[in-house]
Design brief:
The chain contains eight helices and nine strands. The chain is an alpha/beta fold.
Length: about 325
């Protein structure tokens, strides 16, 4: 083989390697460009969805404000904000928004009302009115079929999650030593809940129980906030009985349907209704609401984004006190 032939062969190999390298770089640059383009498109879609959700939130607040300016002093199922949501078409997809009355739900922070200083005094037994109602609320979930002892234990665990001491409540209470010893590596909150979803961290509350309980509970910043009887969920209504057992759930569901169709304007009609064994005390019961939950959903192309907000309405002033993408 001549020297010139060998040189031409080497040159050809080098040329092929250069072409291969250039092709590899071109593919890499093209892939990176496509990736960056996709990221930019996703970011643009996300920002567009966020703006649409913020707009839907403002529309919901406008509906709440319009309702407040009406002549009716009550909040009920016939109000404009309480109507079933309808999808609204937007460029490239649709948008959906709904408002729910949070004062038709059990306020978990009300379990703190009436607690004594358990650092120096015995644990409060029998339980406060709110604690008794929560026990009956748990008993009103037919899917779980909880015994009264199990419902009491769960309630005591929530009380210990909220209270500021480290003394277990009753026989089912759970303080820091339980959570640290159970391998969870966290402590009790020892404060009012910021979100009802904190229940998922409380000992004894399974994911199944949380999903069943979620539509019936809230974590409102004012733990003495009353219940709007016109917007009660069926298990919460069932828990208002004066006895140890909740009202039959079928009866509670039928009653809720009546209240949604014809909201009451006189609290006496509710507390003295013949379906109660005896007249209920009016304390903690009302016909209007201050706290609402907005849920929004936007679909743009293949992307879906959700947002939840807690809206506080005081007189004609509205403010968003919590907001999160996804769920609260």
């Amino acid at each position: 083989m001549s020297r010139s032939f060998a040189q031409r062969g080497a040159a050809m190999v080098i040329a092929m390697m250069v072409v291969a390298l250039a092709a590899t770089i071109a593919v890499a640059v093209g892939s990176d460009y496509q990736l960056q383009l996709r990221r930019a498109q996703n970011h643009q879609t996300l920002e567009q969805a966020k703006q649409l959700l913020m707009g839907a939130e403002q529309l919901a607040m406008l509906a709440l404000l319009t309702d407040k300016r009406s002549d009716s002093p009550i909040d009920g199922g016939q109000d404009i904000w309480a109507q079933p949501p309808q999808p609204y078409p937007v460029d490239g997809g649709w948008m959906l928004g709904s408002v729910n009355d949070l004062q038709g739900r059990f306020n978990l922070n009300s379990l703190l009302v009436g607690l004594r200083d358990t650092q120096t005094e015995p644990v409060t037994v029998p339980y406060t009115v709110a604690q008794q109602r929560f026990i009956k609320l748990l008993l009103s979930l037919p899917e779980m079929a909880l015994s009264r002892a199990e419902a009491v234990e769960l309630t005591e665990a929530v009380i210990d999650w909220l209270d500021s001491d480290q003394r277990p409540t009753g026989f089912g209470g759970k303080e820091d030593d339980y959570y640290l010893g159970d391998g969870r590596s966290y402590r009790t909150a020892d404060r009012a809940m910021l979100s009802a979803s904190e229940l998922r961290a409380v000992g004894g509350f399974s994911e199944e129980l949380w999903q069943l309980l979620q539509p019936h509970v809230a974590a409102l910043p004012l733990h003495e906030t009353g219940l709007n009887v016109n917007m009660l969920t069926a298990p919460v209504l069932a828990s208002l009985t004066l006895g140890d057992e909740p009202l039959a759930l079928d009866s509670a569901r039928a009653w809720v349907e009546e209240l949604r169709a014809e909201p009451l304007e006189d609290i006496q009609l509710f507390v003295s209704d013949a379906r109660w064994d005896s007249t209920l005390p009016e304390e903690g019961l009302q016909l209007s609401s201050d706290f609402f939950l907005f849920n929004g959903q936007v679909k743009l192309g293949d992307s879906v984004l959700e947002m939840a907000s807690v809206v506080y309405r005081q007189n004609e002033q509205l403010s968003v006190i919590q907001r999160a993408l996804g769920a609260l």
